Amino acid sequence: MSHQTKENVLFISGIDTNVGKTVATGMIAKALAKAGKKVITQKMIQTGCEHVSEDIEAHRQIQGIPFTDEDTRGLTCPYIFTYPCSPHMAAAKDGRRIDLDTITQSTRRLRETYEYVLLEGAGGLMVPNDMESLTIDYVKEQAYPLILVTSGKLGSINHTLLSLYACERYGIEVKAIVYNQYPSIDPLIEANTLEYLKAKFPEIPLILLPEMKKGSEELPDIRPLL
Q1: Which residues have a Cβ under 8 Å from the Cβ of 168 and sit 6 or more positions away?
Q2: Does 17 belong to an annotated binding site?
Q3: I need a surface site. Which of 27, 115, 152, 207 has the fewest CB within 10 A?
Q4: Does the annotation mark 43 as catalytic?
Q5: Helix 135-142 vs helix 100-111: angle between axes, to the nearest 10 degrees?
Q6: Which of 43, 93, 200, 214 does the annotation list as catalytic?
């Protein structure tokens, strides 16, 4: 059965690196599966790894499933580079070139089988894939709706506003903001940041990402994505 529409690909980006994109992607995938949807995750470009994408591995652990056939065939992470840095630098250090069409075709093949493809980017929206192309250019070109992962750490309001204003300028639909509540550092700042984002962007659904605890079945409320 084919599910070929742009709407069934959700691009997941973050306001910065290490903001919780990978955990958010895995938990949203698990929640969609629990809602009866056929879902797979994909990593656009992985750096700092060899042979296997550590983010895809984390997704599967969160989902509670083994590696899929698509994982073993490389469809869920077309590019893996060894050095932990921006994709354009990682590709250059490995003596390789990123062909964005390879990523697009991998996603297209996943869309043929799955109702939802959660495509996790590398870092934030302004990360360069090469000297000419940024991640946000690719999202715009593909017309993918976006899920933006943010948090309550100091500085996140600035980074969130910059990311959302960039999406507005590029004409990218923001499907939801995912607010990662953990790890908690300053509860006062975190609570204020959450209230600010709710008040500033009432038209954008805000999904709270629960703490991932061993044995916990709590999942994010993904109704805005259905």
Answers
A1: none
A2: no
A3: 115
A4: yes
A5: 40
A6: 43
- Supply 99's token pair: 């062909």
- Residue 129 among known ligand-binding residues: no
For 63, 100, 169, 212, the CA distances from 78, given in Å and listed in that order, are: 21, 10, 29, 28
Consult the annotation and say whether 20 binds a ligand: yes
Domains of the chain, first to last: 38-136 (3.40.50.300), 144-225 (3.40.50.300)
Please determine, for residue 195, whether its predicted confidence score (pLDDT) is greater than 80. Answer: yes
* Residue 18 annotated as binding site: yes
Q: Note whether 105 and 91 are within 8 A (CB).
A: no
Give residues with Cβ within 8 angstroms of 15, minimum separation 6.
Answer: 124, 148, 149, 150, 151, 156, 159, 160, 162, 163
Q: Report pLDDT digits (tens) over 48-61.
A: 999 999 999 999 99
Residue where the block lists tokens 């995938």: 29
Q: 142 a known binding residue?
A: no
Query: What is the chain's length?
Result: 226
pLDDT for 98-143, tens place per residue?
A: 999 999 999 999 999 999 999 999 999 999 999 999 999 999 999 9
